[in-house]
Amino acid sequence: MLRVLTLATLFPSGARPTLGVFVERQAQGLAAVEGVALEVVAPIGLPAGPLARHPHYNDLRALPEREVRNGLIVHRPRYRVAPWFGQSRTARAIAEALMPMIGEIQERFPFDVIDAEFFWPDGPVAMRLARALGAPFSIKARGGDIDHWGKRPAIARQIVEAAAAADGLLAVSEALRGDMALLGIDPAKVKVHRTGIDLDRFRPGDRAAAKQALGVTGPLLVTAGALIPRKGQAVAIAALARIPQAVLLIVGGGPDRPKLERLARERGVAERVRFLGSRPHEELPGLLAAADVMVLPTAFEGIANVWVESLACGTPVVTCDVGGAREAIDRPEAGRLVTRNEGAVAQAVGELLADQPDPAEVRKAAERFSWDRNAAELRDHLAGLVR
User: Fold this and answer.
1) Would you give the distance in Å from CA 197 to the centre of its chain?
2) Of 155, 97, 164, whose CA–CA distance to 137 is shortest?
3) CA–CA separation, 221 vs 335, rounded Å?
4) What is the mean pLDDT of residues 146-151?
5) Per-residue pLDDT for 374 more than 70?
6) CB within 8 Å of 133: residues ≥ 6 apart
7) pTM confidence score
8) Cα-based angle 280, 310, 294 (whole degrees, multiple of 5)
9) What is the pLDDT of residues 315-356, one digit of tens each?
């Protein structure tokens, strides 16, 4: 029996149901492999002192410290967020808060290995826990944890230290492995571990009927992701002004929404932009399959899950030539890779609308991705660290 303790600071909950759904799906796949037992630790950060009682945190405070979610045992220990100390102290704060609970878990569930799901802050946290407990640990790089946090010197040093101490390393794409090398991480130590996709849920449908149900008669575009600058919704809105009669669905929530709504009004496309907010992941296949093109003018990614999900739905992707984009958009039918500006995005979308690829051909680009393969490779990787 291989006993795995999965550590993930981004993990779905009743308060944040779409946060890190791909981590939950990976954990479910691994737990389903014969001979594997798994529990999840998903720390929750709350501010110190009276701020923790602010209504904004009510839903997080209400979460149980231990629950069974979708068949997984999930522990949710609290740690204190102290912004005045700086984000570089986050990993230490989490590790100190987790140590008592991890010891209790180990007595009941003597795990063989710690599987950290992100390089920051999960990697340095796992390093501290593993040192204290004498357990091997692995860290997975997913994109922003390297390309964003790796640009902050105090955090980058901790990332590189954790990578050197880890017994194994994973990356979601070959391109991300190269980015890790530039940061000072030994690429020979890194295995590529691609995301999976549920090809039964994400599949082409009757696009015309789906668009009609949404009240759309012309071209339909969709973008999905947190409303933050790096995801590029502003570029997608600006490009929409150059694509007559098209409607853009924006799926996701985040701090940029007021700014994006204002931009849509300024560019004269407010009536053609629909902000859907955060939607349950179960609704995403229908929205992606309804669209003619999925647009994600992102600044950086490892391999965006929504790229693969769109392709599985037969919907071509227009995105930027960053991270592992070439590993997903690997054929003309799959979409276009463009520079991050409205003109390039609009031109690429126009090409795909003028000569729409066969959804079955688009889907072939996603058929290489499998949760069964993802789980088997992860099991072999972690078991190898224990041996």
Assistant:
1) 13
2) 164
3) 13
4) 91
5) yes
6) 102, 103, 106
7) 0.88
8) 95
9) 999 999 999 999 999 999 999 999 999 999 999 999 999 999
